[in-house]
């Protein structure tokens, strides 16, 4: 079993597809791996060999998961934010995570397991925090019209604000 690097870790409830989810996520993020997966034995309530719980690491962050069944589902109240250096990273994480899922607005998406993600370029933070409130508002309004964040389009909206 892996040793946690932090006392606090996200723990995710899956509908009996934890192993599939761990393989999906670790295929997307660098510095990722699947840790220990506890499997049912003949004495457990699940089919022998199926996963009960486990750990996986995504880009250095360890997650715990449990195959709890359909009793609980993910909601938008919890999401994971991926900070991206540039548009190519935004596109990579967006395309990878939304595959089999659905797009939302303002850089949000739900993956195929129903988990919400925010794919956010650092440039967006800079633009919506511009010291000129008109430019910051233009960036925010442009973002509100998007699904996937397109940095060039937000920069164009900010640049269109008269000096």
From TrEMBL:
Keyword Transferase recorded: yes
SUPFAM superfamilies cross-referenced by the UniProt entry: Glyoxalase/Bleomycin resistance protein/Dihydroxybiphenyl dioxygenase (SSF54593)
GO process terms (BP): methylation
Domain of life: Bacteria
Pfam family, any one: 3-dmu-9_3-mt
Keyword Methyltransferase: yes
CDD domains: PhnB_like
Any one GO molecular-function label of the UniProt entry: methyltransferase activity
Residue ranges annotated for the PhnB-like domain, each copy included: 7-120
Alphabetical keyword list: Methyltransferase, Transferase, Ubiquinone
Name listed for the protein in its UniProt record: Putative 3-demethylubiquinone-9 3-methyltransferase (Glyoxalase superfamily)
